[in-house]
Amino acid sequence: MTTSDASSLVPLHRLRFDDPGPPRLGELPGGAPAWLVSRYADVRQVLSDPRFGRAQLYAADAPALSDVPDLVNNPDLMFNQDGPDHLRLRRTLRRAFTPRAVARWRPWITAIVEQLLDRLEDRPQPADVVAEFTLPLPVAVISRLMGLDASARDRMRHWSEHAFSDGSHSGEEVESVLKEFSAFGGELLTERRRTPGDDLISSLVRAADEEGGLPEAQLVSLVCGLVVGGHDSTMTMLGNALLYLLGERPESWPRIGADEEAAGRAADRLIHLVPLGDDRGTARHAAEDTEVGGVVIPAGAVVLADCGAANRDPAVFPRHTRDDLFAPLEAPTLSFGAGAHYCLGAWLARTELQIALHRLSARFPGLRLTEPAETVLWRTGTTSRSPRRLGVRW
Question: The whole model's pTM is what?
Fold first, then answer.
């Protein structure tokens, strides 16, 4: 994508979604048929019903979901496993990301936030809040959790840009970077088996040994997924949230800093309403004929569950509260998925976003953008997107 293309994209909080309706036949980007599901109840059913899985999307005769290799479409990834195989991998991590576990991390996450805000305060104005805050915060958090050194932190964005490529990188380039990345993941596992510590990877190795029989390739994919997924989505959410709050909802900014609970509700709304990218559906494979919303989806069909449209379903989320940043959500958001493949890092992402917004607003109640949202240059090339830079004054 060219620079001019990147500057003409619509901010993600302004994306338009079709009104949710019954399941209908559509197509994948490559032209293969797929069923589109958009109502909240229907999307939740597809994501929760074991008859709709991920593994068969990668069968030899399945239509391609992507034109180039990427981490998301690696069959060894935990997200792409079903049934017992998926559960065995998930058990190795489940205890690490419970709300209770994440609550124990709040003090040191807050300390990282404050250190970055100290540094931002010393910068000349206008400062770039992406370079100074929205990118280094999640990188520092996942690095602390996983015990990564500075060299890994420096390469993290490079790996993410190729692991989540939107097709703008060549297949050969992506394949080469992912090979390097997998080698890093394998070396990290070997190192933590040899000299375990109190980090997340050491916990994963211990849990995998207790579970037994887990293929090494799946463990490597799990580690790589944690490294890039653990920072990319939070960075994306935080950058897009600040663009929306400072650009279109400045009246809400002081309250976010004055009330931590209000900041938590605002974080929930922002996660719910501002998607990570332009992709409109998460794919599933129908194992058998299954009725969804009064329509029978045939066995073997690919189903695209549109979580963005479902999160705006007026039957569940009334239009009159949609723009109320401080109103509790009427139902669980589908931004983190649902069912067996629900995002394990959801509570960590929410916690980071709440602390980051609350402390940034408390420290800089007069924070404001120096340029209108329409002029933002976007970080593109991946399935998620967020501002490449955001100039701010305070």
Answer: 0.93
